[in-house]
Structure formats: C-alpha cells, structure tokens
Specification:
Distance between the termini of chain B: 43 Å
CATH class of the largest domain in chain A: Mainly Alpha
Number of helices of chain B: 15
Largest sheet of chain B: 5 strands, parallel
Strand content of chain A: 5-15%
CATH architecture of the largest domain in chain A: Orthogonal Bundle
Radius of gyration of chain A: 21 Å
Structural class of chain A: alpha+beta
CATH topology of the largest domain in chain A: Fumarate Reductase Iron-sulfur Protein, Chain B, domain 2
Number of helices of chain A: 8
CATH superfamily of the largest domain in chain A: Alpha-helical ferredoxin
Number of domains of chain A: 2
Number of strands of chain B: 19
Number of strands of chain A: 7
Radius of gyration of chain B: 24 Å
Strand content of chain B: 5-15%
Largest interface: A-B, 81 and 91 residues
Strand order of the largest sheet of chain B: 5-2-1-9-17
Structural class of chain B: alpha+beta
Strand order of the largest sheet of chain A: 2-1-5-3-4
Helix content of chain B: 25-40%
CATH superfamily of the domain at 245-377 in chain B: Succinate dehydrogenase/fumarate reductase flavoprotein, catalytic domain
Distance between the termini of chain A: 63 Å
Shape of chain A: elongated
Oligomer: heterodimer
CATH class of the domain at 245-377 in chain B: Alpha Beta
C-alpha cells in the first residue's frame, strides 16, 4: 500500500542451534540478520541469512519447510523457548517479522524430545509420529465396496467434534512443548476423531491400546497435565482430547 | 483387461513416487491387493504432500441435493471447463468413479461437513450450476490426504508397503524399453541408489513453481516427470497452466511463495485501482471519483465475478499501466467498505472471517478497515506426462497419476476437481489398469546389478558432482528467481508470439549462466538443501523452454492458455478447433535438439465443442 514503510528495515541478532548430525555435538552460533522488513516472514528472514552464508562459503542453516502457509506441518523451530514462537494458532512459517523489534535477539532451536532425534541443525526426525498412526490411526477399510456415504447419518455435533480433532497437522509442537516429551495430544486427537464417528467404533478398543503402546515404545512420555501442548498447538487442538484418550483407554480394558 | 492371480501379486514390486492424494491412495490400494509396494516422498512424512493445502472441496455427482446432477452433467461441466481440450473417455470415467470416492472417504472417517439431520452437506463452486462439492471446513485437501495417509499407514504396518521418506527420485531406469526402476538420493545421508521393480508410478504433482511466485509448496518440482521425459516419456500440453486471481500479493524480492485466498471473497468485495498513475494516497483517502472499479467498468454484466482468467488479466493490465498498489505496484484493492455499509460488518465476518484472519496474519492489515490487496498467482498445472486411458505413458510400465499427468482437465481445471482426479486415479483406476500391464510381464525381471542401473547411478552421481564443482557466485534461489521472472512475465497470464520468442531467447542464456556461475555450498554426502534446490532449478530451467515452445506452437487461445493474438471481442479465449483440437505430446530428442511433436487428435462423441460461455 502506498502508505507502507517498507524502506524501514531491522537488524536482528540470531542465536541459532547448529549441529552437524545426530551423534555430533551441537552449539549455539550467532548470526546477524540485516535488511529485514515487517513483511518478511520468519522463514524468509532465515532465507536471507542463508543466502549470505552461502555467498560467504559457509554452510547455511538447515531447517524443514515446505508449504509455508501453515498446513503441511513440517516447519519446526523453538523460537525464544516456545515452539512456533508462541503466537496463537500460528506456525513458524506464518510468523512475520513485524512481530519483532529492531535489535531484538532471537534464540532459534530445534524441537527437543527423546523421540525426535536431531538430523541436522533445526531439522529433526519425526518418524515416531508416523509410527503411532501406523499402529492404529485408521479404520481398516479396503478400497471399494463401501456403503453409500449417506447410509449412516452422523449427528452434526459429532462430525464437528471429529473435525476439531482432525485439524492436527502433525508438526509435533505439542511434544516439543511438553516437559515430559509426551505425544498424548497428537495421539488423543486421532483417537478422539475416530471415537466420535460410527466408522471408528468397530476397532476402538484395539486402536487406542495399540496407539498408546506405540507411543510409549517410541520414547514419548505420558501426560503430566501441564497443558503446554495446547498452548503451543498452531491449530488450537484442545486438551479435552487427552481426557477422551484416557477415557477410551479405560474403556478398552473392559 | 487382464488380471494378476491373487497368489502371484506379491511377486510383483511396484514403485510409487509421491505420497499426495494420487500416490498415497495408489500405494495403499495396491498394497491391499497384495502387491509388494515401495513408496517414496521427498518430505519427512507422506502426510505433508501439497495436496494438503487444497481448501475448497471435492466434486462428485452424488446428486444428494436433488438439483439435477448426474454423471453426464459432471462430465459435461469438466469438458466444457477444460475448453474442449481434454480426452473425453478419461473425463467420463472420472465422473463415473467420483461417487465412490466420497463413499470411500466417509468409510475412512473423513469428517466432511454435515447438515443437522446428519447427512453430507455440499456447496456450489465455479463452472457448475449444481451443488456437488463436498468439503471439510476450509481444509478438504488436508482431510482427504489424511484419509489416504491413514490407509497407507495401515499397509505400512501390514508390511505390504515399504516407505522411504526424505527420498528424491533423480532418474528413471528403462530396461529393454520398459520402466523398471528409479535412482534416488537419500536426502539425509546423500546416498544415491537404485530401486528396481516391475512398474513405476509417478504421482509427483505439478510444476506451477516454474513461475515466480506460485502457491505451491517450496519442494514441489518438475524433476521426477522431467527425468522421465528425458528418458522418452512424452510431455503433453505443458503450456496449460492455471492462474488464481485472489492471492495475497508479493511484498518484496525476498518473498518465497504466495498464499491463496478463496475466490468466494469476490462475491462481496469490489475490486479497484486508483484512476491516476502513482496516486500515493492511502486507499481510504482516495475519493470515489478517483477510483477505477475496472472489472465493473469493463465487464458490466459479470463485474467482480468475471471468470478467473479474465479477472487475472485485467488486474495485470491495471498494474502494467502503473496503477497497481502496494509494494512493487503489483496489486489491486479488494474493498469491503460498501458491503460492510450495506450488510453490516457482522455479516461479512460471518461469511469470511477465516480469510480476513489469514490476510491479517500475513500482511498485518485489517481487511475490515483497509481494503485488502490481491494479485493473481500461478497454482496448478493441467499439462503433464502423456498417458493412455490406462494411465500408462508411452513407456511401457511407467504410469502417471494425478496432477503429474495431463488427461482430464484440458486447458483449464474447474475448482474442486483436482482432489477428485488424484483420488480417482489412485483408488479406482490404477488398481485395474496396472494389473493389465503386469499380467503380461514376468515378475522380478529387473535386477539391481543390471548395466542400465549402474549407468543411471553413475549419471546421477556425475550430475550431482557437476553441480557442486561449478563454485560460481549465484545461489540456486537467485537462478530460480531469474527464471521465474522470465516465465511469469512472458508466459504467465498472457502470452504472445513476441513474448514467447523473447523467453525462448532468454531461457537458454539463464541455463548457460547456471552451468558457469552456480554456487552450492557443502557436500553431497549429507543433508544439503542447496544441492536439492540446484537440481530442481536446472530441471525447471530446461522444462521452461519446452513450456514456451508448446505455448508458441499452440497458436490459439483456449481455457487458461491465452494468446493475446486470439481473443473474442469480450476478451474471452478464441479457440481454433480446426487446427488445434489435439493433445500436443512432446518427445525428447537430445540436448540441443528440438523436441518432436506428436499430435493426438481429440474426438468428442457425446457433445459438440462450442464456444465456452459463462454469460
């Protein structure tokens, strides 16, 4: 817009976690981000820093990113101690630099959790979340031969509840935020989605038992009721789904 | 159609590249049937594929609202929307299986929107007069992909599918003229290795990132299908690319992508630019007389709801005229002042609050108080590898699914049809058609130590090494920006003989400079995102030339392909059925040699091609 002040730029001090590989020691390195405007997204700011590093013949900072519109769930950075930077319903890729002041110091770290080994710098391995889904995050329906989509009416509140749970983008911020490295918000959301739908009833008991067992086998902790997961979740997934997970688990025992 | 005996299926290995709607649904369905499947994606998880970003919905001819929909009508709308440049039989089949897709997804637990009686809700979408679009809030792509991902996850657990995430396909291997393997790079360790199988399925999406900037994810590339093209697969209609009119405009050169907002905003918002060039006043200070509501002025009957391509071009013209707004002058206002006055802010909030929030998050501006700024962006490729009715390319054993193939959307895709096609191909077409091919070939024919496999590994290693050794001064991102600007300005929303000839001169220059002056840091034996970008960039540079050539050859306007030389008095595309009612399928003949054009004539038996009119 004509009234914009895109000429005004900011300089930021970045203190970034660098780690060459899973078994290598890591350390913080300091970088200066120059000529950053209000309109740069956080990742575009890092792009600018990386372009300079490449030109200087240095290794750019490795970080996961893809859709850059807050839906693929791959971006994963702890910014000033908070996964995704602590703005409501916002992933790292949707953070914008207008939220930072000229001269700010920003700490950037990877997700830290026993179940998410660091691959390089800010990139971690979240295969454990896939394994939890593989353990039961589905209905065992074959392709084809399914009844007409309107054959089973589903009360609207149930469908909405399932959709609230299904909004999870699988980024793992809940795990990174949890003092116990728990994936119960992630697991609870998937279990709750199916628990609310008639299609999920047949395998309900088996599903919750298998998914929770896999969660523990992967090295995630249990919920310790801090609710940090809910605060960090960029999709606003509620801790009520952890309560539902616990109820479904108890039900499965009888 | 031939079948494979159930007990023999496990002997056949199928390589599926890509885990979007097409790839995940194909891998899951083939795994279920008992085939031995390997699934590859460049992302860290199959759930991240870019199908996830689709907002609007998925079409099906269910006729639940009783509003006169049918398979024939869905077929007709798709053919007409594609401006009579799609293959009739493929579209008919797509319409036929559309209903099964919805059934399948509901059975998987996809939480589609429902009415208070508990039945599925639908909405209407562009290019249709019936309400046939099923949706899950503004995240239909996400929910459908998670459905396919869950089916895939189940097969991984059952060990019928083996998953290779963070893996990029860099070559296709042909043995005795048939597709029998791929060469990949492990993006974590840098290892380059071969996977052999009895058939290869490319489900690797579109190439909209050839333009600067697009709405695609950063990792979306033409690489997989381009490598296949270089091995002999025909590339069909590469010039058919679609532009979306309501994206949030670019803020600066550093920008990495554009974000799309639902077009529904145009139902109420009024689009305008200042009448005078260089008007620096804030939008709310510009009086009515100094505003040019250019769509209402040029297209009085359609106004702000003029079709996608026409609105996009009108916005470009206003900006070319020096009247664009916002940083860089590439934007037009989408103003809600009048509808807010007429209906009240609460009504606008009810209708569009999620879009206003999205806009504010990105721009920091409150769209209720200050007009939004929008600009068109590239977001979908109708063109892709040529396939027959069975989705097999001209290379036996190479199948191409979803956005990566060319067949059903013609010169223009209708909203909510991309999701339908991806899942139709993966769930319901490929399980039948791949069997027909496999039944006539002996399983396990290809071996990893075959000379072609060794050669492919050597080629990929040499290519990688070459990229690292140039040690020039410009980064892959700078080359991509350079290319993207040429493609966007010369082959973007409007094309002319002049602009295309110019691009055909500039692109080879960029290619030459690339090989002289590229700078990639790091080594090939580790995570190296610059190396990945460099490989994708050079493929885009090579591909852009083919895109140009195709656009130049197609000396007509049709659908989204707009040659300024060929337009009707109202600015609509002027088709030339006499000379161009064909699929242009290009065959690679070697570097520095012009590609060979093969023409597949299009025949329409059920309807007659007519002027595409939405008046």
């Amino acid at each position: 817009m004509s009234g914009h002040s895109e000429e005004k730029t900011k300089t930021l001090n970045l203190i970034v976690w660098r780690q060459a590989g899973p078994d290598k020691p890591g350390r913080f390195e300091t970088y200066i981000a120059k000529n950053i405007t209000d309109h740069h997204s956080f990742l575009e700011m890092l792009d600018v820093v990386n372009e300079e590093l490449i030109k200087e013949g240095k290794e750019p900072i490795v970080f996961d990113h893809d859709c850059r519109e807050g839906i693929c769930g791959v971006c994963s950075q702890v910014i000033n101690g908070v996964p995704h930077g602590g703005h409501e319903r916002t992933t790292v890729c949707q953070l914008h630099m207008r939220l930072f002041k000229d001269g700010d110091t920003i700490y950037i770290e990877p997700w830290r959790a026993r179940a998410f080994p660091i691959i390089k710098d800010l990139m971690v391995n979240r295969g454990a979340l896939d394994r939890i889904i593989q353990a039961g995050g589905y209905t065992s329906v074959h392709t084809g031969g399914t009844p007409d989509a309107n054959a089973i009416p589903i009360p609207r509140p149930d469908a909405e509840y399932a959709m609230d749970a299904a909004e999870c983008i699988g980024c793992g911020a809940c795990v990174a935020a949890c003092p116990n490295g728990s994936a119960m918000l992630f697991t609870g959301a998937k279990v709750s989605q199916f628990a609310a739908l008639p299609q999920g009833q047949v395998e309900a008991a088996e599903r919750v038992a298998n998914m929770l067992k896999e969660m523990q086998d992967c090295g995630f902790g249990n919920c310790s009721n801090h609710y940090e997961c809910q605060a960090a979740c960029p999709k606003g997934i509620s801790v009520k789904f952890i309560a539902r997970l616990n109820r479904e688990y108890l039900k499965s025992l009888f | 159609m031939k079948l494979v005996n159930p007990s023999n299926k496990r002997k056949y290995k199928i390589l599926v590249v890509g885990t979007g709607l097409a790839g995940a649904s194909a891998a899951a369905s083939l795994g279920e049937l008992g085939y031995n499947v390997e699934s590859f994606c460049y992302q860290d998880s199959p759930r991240r594929a870019h199908s996830i970003a689709a907002q609007g919905g998925i079409n099906a001819a269910k006729n639940y609202p009783n509003d006169g929909d049918s398979i024939r009508r869905l077929y007709y709308d798709t053919i007409k929307g594609g401006d009579f440049r799609s293959r009739e039989a493929d579209v008919w089949r797509l319409a036929q299986v559309s209903n099964e897709i919805i059934d399948q997804c509901v059975a998987q637990g996809v939480p589609f929107a429902r009415d208070y009686a508990g039945y599925l809700d639908t909405r209407s979408f562009g290019g249709a007069q019936v309400s046939r679009t099923f949706y899950a809030r503004g995240q239909t792509g996400q929910q459908l992909l998670l459905g396919a991902y869950s089916a895939l996850s189940r097969q991984i657990r059952l060990q019928t599918v083996k998953l290779f995430p963070r893996t990029e396909m860099l070559d296709l291997i042909l043995i005795d003229g048939e597709a029998k393997g791929i060469t990949i790079r492990d993006l974590v360790t840098g290892e380059i290795r071969v996977h052999v199988g009895d058939a290869v399925l490319l489900c690797t999406g579109g190439y909209a990132n050839v333009f600067n900037l697009s709405t695609n994810a950063r990792g979306c590339s033409v690489t997989a299908i381009w490598k296949a093209y270089r091995k002999g697969a025909f590339f069909a209609n590469p010039c058919f690319t679609q532009i979306h009119p309501t994206c949030i405009p670019q803020a600066g050169d550093y920008q990495s992508k554009l974000t799309l907002m639902s077009e529904s905003l145009r139902n109420d918002g009024r689009i305008w630019v200042p009448k005078n060039k260089g008007d620096k006043r804030a939008p709310n200070d510009i009086p009515e007389d100094d505003r040019d509501y250019f769509l209402e002025r040029k297209y009085p009957s359609f106004g702000n709801l003029a079709p996608r391509d026409i609105s996009s071009r009108a916005a470009k013209e206003a900006c070319d005229d020096g009247r664009g707004v916002g940083p860089g002058g590439r934007g037009v206002y989408l103003d809600f002042r009048d509808p807010i006055k007429r209906l009240g802010e609460h009504v606008i909030r009810e209708r569009y609050s999620n879009l206003f929030e999205m806009y504010e998050r990105i721009t920091g501006e409150d769209g209720y108080k200050v007009p939004m700024r929008i600009y068109p962006a590239s977001h979908y490729a109708m063109g892709g590898l040529w396939v027959d009715y069975n989705l097999m390319s001209n290379i036996p054993g190479l199948f191409v699914l979803g956005e990566a193939n060319f067949s059903v959307h013609g010169a223009n895709r209708l909203g909510a049809s991309a999701l339908m096609q991806g899942l139709a191909d993966g769930y319901f077409v490929i399980p039948y058609t791949v069997a027909h091919y496999l039944a006539s070939s002996k399983p396990g024919k290809a071996k990893e130590d075959h000379a072609e496999c060794k050669k492919s590994i050597e080629d990929v290693k040499a290519h990688t090494k070459k990229l690292l050794l140039i040690n020039g001064k410009e980064t892959p991102a700078e080359f991509m920006r350079k290319l993207g600007n040429v493609t966007w300005n010369n082959i973007g929303m409007a094309r002319s003989k002049e602009s295309l000839t110019e691009a055909l001169a500039k692109i080879p220059e960029i290619r030459e400079e690339f090989w002289k002056n590229l700078k990639v840091s790091g080594t090939e034996f580790e995570v190296n995102q610059q190396l990945e970008n460099a490989g994708r960039t050079i493929d885009f540079i090579e591909f852009a030339e083919l895109l140009c050539r195709d656009a130049l050859n197609r000396d007509e306007s049709c659908g989204a392909h707009f040659r300024v030389e060929h337009q009707l008095p109202d600015g609509e595309a002027k088709r030339n059925d006499e000379n161009f009612s064909y699929v242009a399928a290009w065959g690679f003949k070697g570097d520095g040699v012009p590609p060979e054009l093969h023409k597949e004539p299009l025949e329409f038996n059920l309807i007659k091609p007519a002027v595409r009119s939405y008046k």
